[in-house]
Structure formats: C-alpha cells, structure tokens
Amino acid sequence: MTNFQNARIPQQVIEDICEWTIMHGVAFRQTDNSARHCPFSIAPVAIEKMTFDHLKKVTPVITQLISNISEDHDFLQASLSAVAKSDPFFGRLMELHQQVHGVAENRIPSIRKPLLIMRTDFMDDRRQGAKIIEFNGIAAGMAPFGQRATELHRYIQDQWPEIYQHLLENKASVPSENQGLRQLAIGIATAARKVREDFKEPGKPIFLMVVQKNEDNVYDQHILESELRTIGITTVRRTFDELSTQLSTGENSRLILKGVGGVDVVYLRAGYQYSDYWAPELDDLICCQTLSQTRMFIEQHHVAMNATISQQLATSKTMQMLLTIMPPEQFERWGLDLDEAQLVKSVLADMKPINADTIHWFDEEAVKEEWVLKNQGEGGGHCIFGEDITEKLKQLSPDEYGAWALMERLYPHEREIPTIAVRESHQTQIDDLVSEIGLFTVFYLGQPVTEFDGYAGYLIRSKPASENEGGIHSGKGILDSLVLVDSL
C-alpha cells in the first residue's frame, strides 16, 4: 500500500508509470535516438456524458460536410482567393489546386481517392458549451497516443488505485472507451483494400506514410504502423525528398514506389508547412517547387490519399470562419439537411475576418481578452491573445489581412480538484488544469469507414489555464483521458 499524502506521489511510483509509457511507445525520440516519455496526467478529466455524446454525434456530420466541400473545387477557389494572396504557403497550395482542379483545358487530371482522416478539436466553454477550436485535416495524428493515454490511466487505476481515486474528480465517473488507434487503422485498411481490389492485385495492401526528416514525434506514427501490420497491411515511410526520385506511374494510373510496388494509401504526416518541401541538397529556387510537385504527382494516380490538397484547403482556419458566418441553409449545397446544419452550427464559435471595419471595432468596442487572433498555421505558436492582438493588427498591411481571423476565445471548465502532471519524470501539482478534446473521424470517398459510423476515438490534451499553448509536442500540454459523469 502506497503512503500517499498531500498529493505528492512517491518517486518510485512515478518511475514505474514513466517506464510504462516508454514501454508502450508514448514517447518522443531524442537526438541521440533515445526516448523521453510524453508528459501526462495521473488521473483523467471529467466531462458530462451528454456533452461528449453530442460531440460524437456532431463530429462525423462535420467530417461529411468538410469531405463534400473539399470536392467542391470551384467553391474552394472562389472563397479562398484572399487568403491565397496573403499567405505565401497557402498561395502555393492554391496554385497546386488550380493546376489540378482549375480551368478544364489547363488542368492536370486528378484521380486520387480522397481519404479524410480528420481531428476536430473542441473546448468545453463554461458559458456556451463545447465549441470547435480548429479542424485538422493534414497530419491529423496522435490517435494512437489518445488510446494509449486511456490505457495508461487504466493501468494506474489497477496498479495504484489509492492514488488514482485520490485524484479522480468524481468517484461515480465512468472511463470513456477510446479506440483511436484501432479505428484509425480499420479506416485506413478499409481504403487500402478497396484500392487493391480495384487493381485486382494479390498480396498485402501497401500503406505509405510521408514523414518529416529527423522528426522526433515518430512513436505515435510507429504505433499506427504496427497496428496496420497486425491487420495485414504493409507499411513504408518516405520523405517528400525521397519520393521525388522514387515514384512512377504504372498501368491504369497505378502509383508505383521504387522497390516496393503499387501503393494503395498515402498518408501525409508532413506537408503542412514550407519546410516540409525544402531539401538542402536542391537549389533553393527549385526545391519547394520540386517537392510540392511530388505531392501533386501523387494526386494524379489511383490511390487513396490523406490529405489531398483540397482537403487541406477545406480544413483551413479561413474555411472554418466562412462556415461560422454563412447561414445554415447554405450547407444544403454540400448535402446536409437543415437539422444537420444546425447541429454543426451548435459547435461553431464566433469568428470575424480581418478588415478595416473589424480592426476599428476591435480597437473601439471589443473586450480584447475575449478574442484570439489566428493565422493559417498548423500546430502550436500561431495564436495571439489580448493586447498583443492590437499590436499585431497595427503591423499587418491590408494585403496580409486575408491570412488572419479573430475567433471568440473559449474558457473551458477547470478541473475541480488539483491533479498531478508528470514531465521528464518530475511531478507537478496543477490546480487549474483545462482540457482540449480532439475527436477523430475517418471517411473514404465521402463515406464513413470505422466501426462507429466514422467516429474513431479521441485525444485529450490538458494544460494549466494560465498557459496559451497546449500542444503536447510544442506547448505546455499533457496527455490525458476522459471519464464520463452525469453532471459537473
């Protein structure tokens, strides 16, 4: 029996739990090829069952909407032209999209099969309820870590029950099932097998993960690859640089990878920033052009792909803002009925485009602490808060406005009792922990391909309320999991 007092956990227990995380791949790679565990909480966060059920209901509808928007190429070109002029990387994506889906006589045919692996991130606001923070349609990873965090808390509950119970918010709560790893693998495998069947080829389907060179967030990726191999999928990894010389076209627009053969699924864990398309060995003037053309080359083949260029555009911050502004009746264009549109609207927080009128309103009328300024960047470090927003808006020229948007700031419920966060084997008591909830979905050719109608598990990232950046990898976030309660 552990002597547990004043929320201080014996170091031997901390070391045991940290060893569990390393053993199960919940880790980041170090430069010397060793591993350090991901930061994590000792006990899960509580959420009202009704709220979580609502999110599981609405998120596949959102994915269906985004899936249909991503194939509405005229709408993407018309609605995102301003941001393309304001953000160089976004402009490059739009150029690629125009080459593939633009004017008929000029376009390069695109026959890729869209596989939308998406993570929709929410915060449960104290006043308004759960609202969307952002869509993640490219490099939407960490479903394996989400499932592992649930398994980690189950281990702590079994191995150190008195510690777990002491830190549990509500003793009547029930752990929420999380099959993020399994369902993501099932969705990918379903798409891979369908492409393989299209070519009537024998053998195991081939899954290609496009990765960043020397990336440290690799174990989450390897856990997914291991699960895919368990269910009969062959996995390979390449960077864009490597693919630029290893891809070719086979019969019937088959995508061929040198030394491997026909590829059935391409999953991008890279491609959301300019540096992913930069290779020091190539001339600076041509490298980004060459490697981004490699991505477009993939789109010209009969292969299941996430993320397509159009999926990346459709999950942008600007598209999120446009959906927030437009009336629900307009969603009928993409196959949603009014009830489904209202369901999506129920989780969209207020957003405003940046223009002269918005800037004047923000300076003269807005409560500045109630807003956050966002650009199109993925991952942490792309949000500006409070008075810093005023300074940033002053620095922007009108031709930069399109890359930015104001979003109503969300203030989620703080955990009712202090908890323990563990980072680099050191424990810290946190009194004001708040959580971000990411729900995964997988659709292929516009249809759900998981055992739960498209829903594919969740990822919980918690952080102190005083911290703005909550990423596990790039911020002050820690891995967490959910327990369900009738009411908070």
From TrEMBL:
It holds the Pfam family GSH_synthase. Pathway: Sulfur metabolism; glutathione biosynthesis; glutathione from L-cysteine and L-glutamate: step 2/2. It is an enzyme of class 6 (ligase). SUPFAM superfamilies: Glutathione synthetase ATP-binding domain-like (SSF56059), PreATP-grasp domain (SSF52440). Its cofactor is Mg(2+). Gene3D superfamilies: 3.30.1490.50, 3.30.1490.80, ATP-grasp fold, B domain, Glutathione synthase, substrate-binding domain superfamily, eukaryotic, Glutathione Synthetase, Chain A, domain 3. Keywords: ATP-binding, Glutathione biosynthesis, Ligase, Magnesium, Metal-binding, Nucleotide-binding. Coiled coil: none annotated. Its EC number is 6.3.2.3. Signal peptide: none annotated. Residues 206-314 form the Glutathione synthase substrate-binding domain. PANTHER family: GLUTATHIONE SYNTHETASE (PTHR11130). Belongs to the eukaryotic GSH synthase family. This is glutathione synthase. It comes from Litoribrevibacter euphylliae.
